[in-house]
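User: Sequence recovery, please. Input:
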């Protein structure tokens, strides 16, 4: 401990030598502020992190004006010592008035703190949560009632708030809109983590000794109404954060609860009748695993509340490699199957879609990893109109250190810490590593991304926990206070007021009745260009509460119009209000305007979701790719269904063909009015053994009807298995198919097909084929080939690749291709894309294909889908290409590419694909953790006997230069789904699709002038659920409508114009005036196209 304090002292001294103007925030010294609070912890044999798991969770901070002098005061909770109250004397001078005020507390272990006017006398009271008394009964919560003379009396029992549980925090709000403040009390389970049977559904069973509680204010007495209100209060509740706000914009406050350990989080939607419905699994697709602090705010100024939750994923590479472990696939699936949902080790940022769904975009935003994170606070640090993000980090004793865990699990060490039958906890705890971790301060860039910015001055290495913001000096910017374990607290002065840019408006709200601070008020501000939105709810972050004056930063000093929705639903309007002031608004003085009950105006709808009564679900066969190769980041075995349509029986109406996965038959669907009916008489010979990756209807034998080609493949199959062979079925004209005897696509080897495309390559009047190879089984990374098949006009095909397109040999892991006249010379060229591939254009020169030297081949991506169209009306065909997207743990650029090394590194006749990324030092480092790599390549255990030896190891430290020189090396430098505008002569302009198109991998694209404005629009879909737990699901897409502005630029329509859906989209077609979407392991989704 002394070593860490010395380190911090030196760091503070070094920082103090810098100019105060170097950083946005200035760390004030205790000699300046007179704040000397330290949350110092001392463990002993009976009470330590092993006997009380929350020992190092730290304390909270509350900011509020307790004496109504206009200056916010500060209250700190201490775990083992006295809580402290500091009176703000102005000019960042504070006075410790704890003893005078009698608010130090008498319980064993204080945690969260809230300032609230609980008795509506106009003075802020202080509610302190307590915990930690493992054996005794000294953890009742305390309520200090403000007497109006800077003294307080403790009256928790009188008010019904002396809860005896392991309380973490409390949030006061008027959930039932009866005019007074109720409270959600967050408790942490007393039961040991290892004592639970996860197969038992404990969630609905109430914990008589603890559990979360919703307490209704009944004439000044708080009464537990949790059960009738629909609030869980079970023993598996490990609540570390409670965040209240209106998430569905109905004017009623909802609740988000973040739970630590295995229990999932809760999202309670207010039913407006005194009850809540827990809707997390309906609204959110992925959550943090060990959820901690949280906050709720509008990060993109769209008027909806977004949600951020912290976790423990390190942002620093060396810590990631030494303290992190992830669940394997089997454990992840076990948790999901037992009702604990999709939880991942990372921070999550839930972007509110405005339709009761959220897209998790933490990875795209760049905020998914901030280390052992506690408090998360959204506030506008620089007054530019965008909320930034502060995260308090650190744990004084890091129990996740993998070398420590290995060390203490050895038999020799276990014997040394045992004394008889007792554990010597002192010995066990003293050797736990202790290292300060930097706090994070992310500046909002305005495009759903954030940058951790050292110039804020907030990136201090520390053991930080609770934190709170407030305008401590009333200069119009928000200052910050941070509580630390075993080191001085931080008090930061914000110097935005001294910068040339940045404006603000601040609200001092005076509510009516029993809600004097107007908790629950919603404020919208318009500056003539943009809207800004804030909710009055001071309880945020971790165990803390903020200055009760809502604050909005603004980019200009233009006068603003203000709309205030008070907690009782009435509205007030103020026009042309000057900014850069603290605006005092008294609800009782404002004209009362009842809200109109008009339905919200809907944007134009182009699509209408149809009820699908079809009893059809695509069934993906059970196969775990990671069991075969532990180093794959994503499963490759869920590519379907790629549905197709065509009139196969000549009746003038489309049929839809749905290819089957392994062990499942393909299905034919017929239209009946606006419904699809399964054709029970349809069958294909030898269909179930193979997996059809992509089918194609085309006239193979020139008889005027549609025949069927099935490109078959699948990672499940060995490269020696004949089930990989493609099949051609001839149509008799009535929709009955007979299998051809041809060996397709080639008779030289079995071919793992991914795509099939048809074109009259040689202009002889019949349709020829291109077949792309997805990969070579058991050899991920090794390039596959493309095949050109020429048709003799009667449905007999010949492989002419070696003569007509030799450069298709070993071109890569092909995912898609199109024939298109890209050079405008009246023949169709071939464009091929894939994983670790560029966009490869093969120009058609009289039936011979030559690989272009276009710059498009340099855009190496994880490309998945491609379509072409003239997007800007210049007569040249442009390209839209679906890629992996940017909402991912992976990032790549030309300067810092992803590189895959493929070799049999451990010489066991199995290829090892090692995925790496380039760092600033020019070296490549593995994504995988030590134990993953050792599981795949056992000899590495001798090279890296512990995590310390591995944490800074590059690929060059792992393998010899000969091994690396002899390895296959392929790169990725582009992950964004993109548009390529054809400028002619092989030149293209590149730009990324809008940010919303980067939320997930895009597997299907469909082009049409949907809005009938004369240019091509795009609908797209994707998502990939089966990724390693350390990578996390890609599930943020709910369908995408991209509207063309007529110049080849696209904008993502927030409403989707009615095209919205969940699931893993694999194909989109237009059939019978309907958009039909094929989804993996799901039903077909059908949308009526309203302009057809």
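Assistant: Recovered sequence (1092 residues):
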């Amino acid at each position: 401990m002394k070593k860490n304090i010395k380190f911090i002292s030196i760091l503070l001294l070094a920082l103090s030598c810098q100019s105060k103007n170097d950083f946005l925030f200035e760390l004030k010294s205790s000699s300046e502020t007179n704040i000397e609070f330290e949350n110092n912890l001392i463990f002993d044999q009976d009470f330590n992190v092993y006997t009380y798991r929350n020992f190092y969770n730290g304390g909270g901070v509350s900011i509020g004006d307790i004496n109504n002098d206009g200056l916010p005061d500060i209250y700190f909770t201490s775990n083992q010592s006295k809580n402290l109250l500091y009176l703000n004397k102005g000019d960042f001078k504070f006075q410790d008035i704890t003893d005078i005020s009698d608010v130090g507390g008498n319980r064993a272990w204080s945690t969260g703190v809230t300032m609230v006017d609980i008795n509506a006398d106009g003075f802020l009271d202080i509610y302190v949560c307590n915990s930690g008394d493992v054996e005794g009964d000294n953890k009742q919560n305390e309520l200090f009632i403000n007497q109006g003379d800077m003294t307080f009396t403790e009256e928790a029992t009188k008010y019904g708030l002396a809860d005896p549980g392991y309380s973490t925090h409390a949030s006061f709000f008027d959930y039932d809109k009866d005019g007074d403040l109720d409270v959600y009390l967050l408790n942490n389970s007393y039961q040991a983590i290892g004592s639970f049977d996860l197969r038992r559904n404990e969630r609905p069973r109430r914990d008589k000794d603890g559990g979360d509680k919703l307490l209704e204010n009944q004439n000044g007495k708080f009464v537990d109404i949790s059960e009738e209100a629909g609030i869980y209060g079970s023993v598996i509740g490990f609540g570390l954060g409670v965040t209240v706000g209106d998430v569905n914009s109905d004017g009623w406050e909802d609740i988000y609860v973040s739970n630590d350990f295995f229990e999932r989080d809760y999202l309670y939607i207010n039913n407006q009748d005194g009850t809540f419905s827990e809707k997390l699994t309906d609204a959110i697709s992925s959550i943090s695993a060990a959820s901690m602090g949280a906050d709720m705010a509008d990060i993109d100024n769209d008027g909806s509340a977004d949600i951020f939750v912290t976790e423990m994923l390190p942002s620093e590479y060396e810590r990631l490699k030494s303290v992190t472990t992830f669940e394997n696939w089997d454990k992840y699936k076990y948790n999901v199957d037992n009702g604990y949902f999709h939880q991942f080790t990372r921070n999550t940022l839930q972007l509110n879609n405005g339709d009761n769904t959220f897209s998790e975009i933490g990875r795209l935003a760049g905020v998914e990893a901030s280390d052992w994170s506690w408090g998360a606070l959204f506030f506008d640090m620089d007054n530019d109109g965008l909320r930034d993000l502060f995260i308090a980090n650190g744990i004084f004793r890091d129990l996740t250190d993998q070398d420590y865990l290995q060390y203490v699990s050895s038999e020799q060490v276990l014997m040394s810490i045992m004394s008889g039958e007792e554990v010597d906890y002192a010995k066990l705890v003293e050797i736990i590593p202790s290292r300060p971790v930097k706090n994070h301060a992310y500046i909002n860039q305005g495009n759903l991304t954030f940058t951790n910015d050292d110039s804020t001055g907030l990136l201090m290495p520390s053991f930080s926990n609770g934190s709170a913001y407030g305008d401590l000096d009333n200069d119009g910017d928000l200052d910050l206070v941070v509580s630390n374990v075993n080191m001085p607290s931080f008090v930061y002065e914000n110097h935005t007021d001294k910068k040339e840019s940045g404006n603000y408006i601040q609200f001092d709200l005076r509510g009516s009745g029993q809600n004097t601070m107007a908790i629950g008020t919603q404020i919208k501000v318009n500056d003539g260009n943009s809207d800004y939105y804030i909710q009055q709810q001071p309880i945020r972050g971790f165990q803390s509460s903020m200055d009760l004056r809502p604050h909005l930063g603004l980019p200009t000093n233009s006068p603003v119009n203000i709309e205030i929705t008070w907690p009782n639903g009435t509205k007030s309007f103020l026009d042309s209000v000057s900014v850069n002031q603290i605006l005092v608004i008294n609800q009782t003085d404002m004209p009362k305007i009842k809200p109109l009950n008009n339905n919200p105006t809907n944007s134009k709808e182009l699509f209408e979701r149809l009820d699908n009564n079809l009893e059809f679900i695509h069934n993906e066969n059970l196969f775990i790719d990671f069991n075969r190769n532990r180093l794959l980041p994503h499963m490759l075995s869920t590519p379907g269904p790629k549905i197709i349509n065509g009139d196969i029986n000549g009746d003038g109406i489309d049929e839809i063909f749905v290819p089957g996965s392994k062990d499942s038959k393909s299905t034919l669907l017929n239209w009946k009015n606006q419904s699809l009916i399964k054709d029970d008489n349809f069958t294909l010979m030898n269909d179930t053994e193979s997996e059809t990756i992509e089918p194609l209807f085309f006239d193979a034998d020139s008889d005027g009807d549609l025949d069927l080609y099935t490109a078959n493949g699948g990672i499940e199959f060995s490269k020696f298995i004949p089930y990989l062979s493609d099949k051609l079925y001839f149509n008799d004209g009535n929709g009955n198919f007979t299998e051809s005897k041809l060996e397709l696509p080639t008779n030289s080897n079995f071919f793992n097909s991914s795509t099939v495309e048809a074109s009259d390559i040689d202009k002889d009047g019949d349709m020829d084929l291109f077949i792309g190879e997805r990969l070579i089984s058991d050899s991920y990374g090794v390039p596959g080939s493309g095949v050109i098949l020429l048709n003799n006009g009667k449905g007999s095909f010949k492989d002419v690749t070696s003569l007509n397109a030799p450069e298709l040999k070993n071109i890569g892991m092909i995912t898609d291709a199109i024939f298109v006249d890209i050079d405008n010379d009246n023949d169709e060229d071939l464009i091929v894309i894939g994983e670790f591939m560029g966009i490869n254009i093969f120009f058609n020169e009289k039936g011979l294909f030559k690989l272009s030297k276009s710059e498009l081949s340099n855009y190496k991506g994880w490309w998945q889908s491609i379509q072409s169209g003239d997007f800007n009306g210049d007569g040249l065909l442009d390209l839209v290409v679906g890629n992996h997207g940017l909402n991912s743990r992976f990032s790549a650029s030309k300067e810092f590419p992803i590189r895959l090394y493929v070799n049999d590194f451990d010489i066991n006749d199995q290829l090892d694909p090692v995925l790496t990324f380039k760092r600033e030092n020019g070296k490549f480092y593995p994504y995988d953790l030590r134990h993953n790599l050792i599981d795949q390549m056992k000899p590495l255990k001798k090279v890296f006997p512990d995590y310390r030896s591995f944490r800074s190891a590059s690929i060059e430290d792992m393998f010899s230069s000969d091994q690396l020189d002899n390895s296959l090396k392929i790169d990725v430098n582009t992950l964004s789904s993109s548009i390529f505008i054809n400028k002619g002569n092989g030149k293209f302009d590149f730009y990324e699709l809008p940010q919303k198109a980067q939320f997930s991998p895009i597997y299907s694209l469909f082009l049409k002038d949907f809005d009938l404005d004369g240019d091509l629009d795009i609908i797209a879909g994707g998502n990939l659920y089966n990724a390693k737990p350390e990578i996390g699901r890609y599930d943020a897409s709910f369908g995408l409508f991209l509207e063309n502005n007529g110049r080849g630029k696209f904008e993502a329509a927030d409403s989707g114009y009615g095209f919205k859906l969940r699931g893993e989209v694999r194909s989109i077609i237009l059939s019978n005036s309907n958009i039909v979407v094929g989804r993996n392991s799901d039903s077909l989704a059908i949308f009526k196209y309203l302009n057809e």
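The chain has a mean pLDDT of 94.
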